[in-house]
Amino acid sequence: MQTILMTGGAGFIGSCFVRRAVARGGVRIINLDKLTYAGNPDSLPPNGERHELVVGDIGDGALVRQLLEKYQPSAIVNFAAESHVDRSIDGPLAFVETNVLGTCRLLEEVRRYYGQLSAELRAAFRFLHVSTDEVYGSLGAEGLFTETTSYSPNSPYSASKAASDHFVRAYHHTYGLPVLITNCSNNYGPFQFPEKLIPLMILNALEGKPLPVYGDGLNVRDWLFVEDHCEAIETVLARGVIGECYNVGGNNEQTNINIVKTICSTMDRLRPGLAHSPCESLIKYVKDRPGHDRRYAIDASKIARELGWQPKQDFQSGLEKTIQWYLDNPAWVERVQSGKYRRERLGLSD
Predict the structure, then answer these.
(1) Of the residues 157, 188, 214, 296, which is catalytic?
(2) Active-site residue, selected from the candidate residues 86, 134, 227, 231
(3) Pick the catalytic residue: 33, 82, 109, 133?
(4) I need a labelling partner for 66 at 20 to 30 A (CA). Which of 14, 107, 320, 337 fits?
(5) Sign of the alpha-carbon dihedral angle for 95, 100, 101, 104
(6) In this structure, are residues 20 and 237 in contact, taking their beta carbons and an 8 Å threshold?
(7) Residue 321 included in any domain
(8) pLDDT digits (tens, 9 = 90+) for 89-123
(9) Does residue 278 fall inside a structural domain?
(10) pTM for this structure?
């Protein structure tokens, strides 16, 4: 049975990867997660032969070394990151600590471990770093981010992820570590922490609370269903070329206001009789986020051409699955909301 050491596997995307791996079989996941606000054991299968959750920090070199020596993984998949732009505006240093320093400390331990492997095990070993399209900055009205687009991060979050990408690449070129990097567009789907746009709007609409839309609502993002993203990561891990980067996108460019209106119309249909109907009456335009990138859009042709991956879910069907999941899982939502986060506005900077 293959063993993978995952970091950040209790988060939104990481937990989806874990659930898929456990359901598929043939792999054991050692899941290192600090369980910060967005890490949720409720999103994970129970500990057992195929999955073990270890609570800890990727920056804890002694712990990482212990896990590497004990479990002898053939791959590392690094999901661990502070990931919300608004939170990075409120507190950028936490993003530097986890996303930059934490990744570097992880790389150092992995480099040490890799150097001790036999030639046969070294040939099979991979370090896959999961990143974001936000490292590329903002697009104009046309064009797409490719793997050769220059980095131009505009928020503390994207700057920290850009730095971590560069360190991962540097460890390949300097030390020969067999790395892979994926840069994804905006993810959505079940189990997402409710500070993100789509679950925030779903839950606020359920409770008749305002649906805050930043600025004019015309900022554009490419939306990727989380199951499709995890399948792409599995594909890159299995067949990706060492040292290469792969952009992963959903081919679903949408303005923020269109996302919110689509959620509203879907909510009106799936949950008729809501107190505030039509749902669109709850939309409220609010002050824009500082440094809000205007448009992201991914060119995912490389991963399609070279590895044969394409997203399976179109946006309307993926969104409907997502909304239905939140409607069907109030206990999960209630437990998430029992923590510090209360869907308050973050990232105002003043």
Answers:
(1) 157
(2) 134
(3) 133
(4) 14
(5) positive
(6) no
(7) no
(8) 889 999 999 999 999 999 999 999 999 999 999 99
(9) no
(10) 0.92
**274 occurs within a structural domain:** no
Distance CA 73, CA 5 (A): 6
Tell me how far apart the terminal alpha carbons of the chain are, to the nearest angstrom: 52
**Per residue, what are the HEC states of the chain?**
CEEEEEECCCCHHHHHHHHHHHHHCCEEEEEEECCCCCCCHHHCCCCCCCEEEEECCCCCHHHHHHHHHHHCCCEEEECCCCCCHHHHHHCHHHHHHHHHHHHHHHHHHHHHHHHCCCHHHHHHCEEEEEEEHHHHCCCCCCCCECCCCCCCCCCHHHHHHHHHHHHHHHHHHHHCCCEEEEEECEEECCCCCCCCHHHHHHHHHHHCCCEEEECCCCCEEEEEEHHHHHHHHHHHHHHCCCCCEEEECCCCEEEHHHHHHHHHHHHHHHCCCCCCCCHHHHEEEECCCCCCCCECCECCHHHHHHHCCCCCCCHHHHHHHHHHHHHHCHHHHHHHHCCCCCCCCCCCCC
Q: Cα 81 vs. chain centroid, distance in angstroms?
A: 8
Nearest to 77 by CA among 152, 15, 119, 35: 15
Residue in the structure block whose two tokens are 């996108």: 249
- Smallest CA-to-CA distance from 250 within 327, 323, 292, 303 is with 303
Which two structure tokens, joined as six digits, stand for 48?
């057992």
**Parallel, antiparallel or unpaired: strands 126-132 and 2-7:** unpaired
Tokens representing 301 are 């042709």
90 is catalytic: no
Annotation says 33 is catalytic = no
Tens of pLDDT along 193-243? 888 899 999 999 999 999 999 999 999 999 999 999 999 999 999 999 999
The CATH number of whichever domain residue 84 belongs to comes to: 3.40.50.720
Q: How many domains does the chain have?
A: 1
Residue 54 falls within a domain, yes or no?
A: yes
The CB density around residue 101, as the number of other CB atoms within 10 Å, is 16
Tell me if 18 sits within 8 A of 24, measured CB to CB: no
Structure tokens at 54: 């270890």
Report the distance separating Cα 64 and Cα 302, nearest Å.
33
